[in-house]
Amino acid sequence: MRQRCGLWLMGGRGSVATTAITGLLALRAGLVRPVGCVTERLEMDHSVLPTWDEIIVGGHDIVSIPLDKRAEHLAESGLIPHSVFTAVASGLRAVDAELRCGYHPVSHTGSLADAAARLASDITEFRDRHDLARVIVVNVTSTEPPVPELPEHLDIDLLTESLNDPQRTVLPPSSVGAYAALTAGCPYVDFTPSPGIKMPALTELARRQGLPYAGADGKTGETLLRTVLAPMFVARALNVRSWAGTNLLGGGDGANLADPEQAKGKLESKARGLASLIGDVTAPLHIDNVPDLAERKIAWDYVSFEGFLGAKMSLQFTWDGYDSALAAPLVLDLTRLVSAAHAKGLSGALSELAFFFKDPLGTDEHRFAEQTRMLADWAAGL
């Protein structure tokens, strides 16, 4: 029996969230085909997945620009067709009414426990008001830098105690959001490389609450290609000597990642996947902000490899795309799949969803073909 499901977007007015919401409204109205939506192609019992009509959207954000204005900007940049924007503008305004003010460490007064309680209350109120079977919380906020490990990050009881101290800030915003989601009884998806739910204390909280979670860092472009191509070199016994990459991007993501500290987590996430596939090789990677690119993202990779008799060869590729258009259908897919997992009573890290992530939780498998098989087998058993 189908049940209505909530999608609560942390960062609900950002590019990825706005694109996902616009796409969901367009899918409901039959204005677009579900291109990029993997759940539409999986061989599985589709009755366990919420339909597009059954996904109700809310969220948090610290910015106040209305969703329809944000979508209009994305339409002007070429990401959203103007005809689609016009058709769903009223729907965007309705969703905007469901968005609430998020947690900002600068403006917040009081303890982190107070902040988390307010966020959790927003989610539970949304769930109750819409009579939803469950709410899936998806983090699509801007990337945060890594944080130094504290004893509280390792023990949920220590963490809970420290959150009540208004003089301490032991969690970054992404982890405050994850804590709020879990205390509200909601499955959690981390589509970013931010600390989020990755702290042992929070994964222990998820275990205690019996909740599933998935992450981390959505795999949409350059890393997607790397996880396809790198196993090829290994399988053909070709020696990769170096793998260099440059990312050029604009928009809010480009501005955020222009800060080396902010970019650190993203770079580490990308590097871990490549290292697991081909071992320890020279692999410099740069991220540059190019405002003129707006919502486009361009990645250029140069792979130097060695063949028989020491012959030196190379592969170069360029990926030029709209990252939000690649990410948005995955956000909808993850909402549907995690909802089905929660309905079945699954809990802990959903390692079978590694297919969607650069830095998958619960598994060290990065080979795309193997991830695809894992996902297909798992989905067929839901």
Automatic annotation (TrEMBL):
GO BP: inositol biosynthetic process; phospholipid biosynthetic process
Annotated ranges, domain Myo-inositol-1-phosphate synthase GAPDH-like: 221-324
Pfam families (alphabetical): Inos-1-P_synth, NAD_binding_5
Tree of life domain: Bacteria
MF GO annotations: inositol-3-phosphate synthase activity
Family statement drawn from the similarity comment of this UniProt entry: Belongs to the myo-inositol 1-phosphate synthase family.
Protein name: Myo-inositol-1-phosphate synthase
Organism in which the protein naturally occurs: Kibdelosporangium aridum
